[in-house]
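BUG: 3D viewer hangs when loading the predicted structure for this chain

Environment: internal workstation, default settings.
Expected: structure renders.
Actual: progress bar stalls at 90%.

Input used:
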Amino acid sequence: MVASALSEIPVSVIIPAYNAGRYIASTLQSVTGQTHTRLEILIVDDGSTDDTPEICRRIAAEDSRIRIISTENRGVAAARNIGIEASTSDYVAFVDADDLWHPSYIETLLSALHPLPPDWGAVYALHRIIDSEGYCTKASSGLSARGMVLARHLIFRFVGNGSGLMIRRAVYDVVGGYDPSYAERGIGGCEDLDYELRVAEAFKIEAVPLGLVGYRIHSTAMSSDSSRMARSLLAVYEGAVARNLQLPRWVVDCAFASVHLYAFSKFTAAKNWKNAAGSLKQIFRFSPRLACIVFFGLILSKLRRAANRMRSKLVTTQKNLMRFDQLDPHAPLGAGLSSFRTEKLLMQLSEVDQALDISHRQQKRGRSFTGNGPIGNGGPFAL
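Structure tokens produced before the viewer hung:
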């Protein structure tokens, strides 16, 4: 499709906002400044008690594409669902009220997804981590995968935030919306990953391997509560495994090792050593080798931090950080591989995804999948 025709396709942008007064203006600036201008911008004010509504109304008065929907505080999942229900476009993109988009974000993702057949339900972009002032502090993983990505996404979690996904509106009719029960149970934080996995169970997903999202890390962000995030992630994986009993046992073991590895990092960062020990025990349950790597890695990291603190007393260093809006989106991202998330594991999971794809296509033709490939019980991977 030529660029002029693509520019006429409307896209709905859903922005859930709760007490986002400090960042919502910069987020909206990154949305209204998109090179793709045919936007319906839906801000769902989730019962904010700060100046978020006033800021949004002031900006909306200058841009007719913005519509504000006010609701009582029910959590980010419910707010996103309200936005989807109110949307009128065939494509829906999500951005959290403290994150940023590169100006080409919508144009790039739409041009990647729109030409594909309807069984490609979504597209995602990669991100860079930014601080409270909008400076890039870290390049995230540069790894991505496309097509049927369920097994790979379980382990590698390519998107990593709630601001990097665009779906066809038709996906909502098949998969439904975001799950509000996480917030109701007091474990909100990973609703975006839960939704990505449910989309990946039913649709192929395209990837744009560029750092087009500025994912903001700050003390008031939902992701800053390490204990809740760890419990949320575990609940997401328990649900995903229960829905996908066809996954090989070794993939399930890798998935839970990945969860507890994440939880361990969160707990150690918060100096919550009791829960960190519990996570390490669970890692050992799924992979004794990985547990040993993690344990000795923790000791080495503590030694490195102590050495860095000593060095910082002697030498004054200054980091030259760039603002997200000044950074070339084609600039390299991180490698994304580790002693756990290896190239070999990615290839093995790719084989599982290929088998899942075959299974889906055969089920659509009315046949059941009975092959003996990597989707069976004899998986090749052992940690």
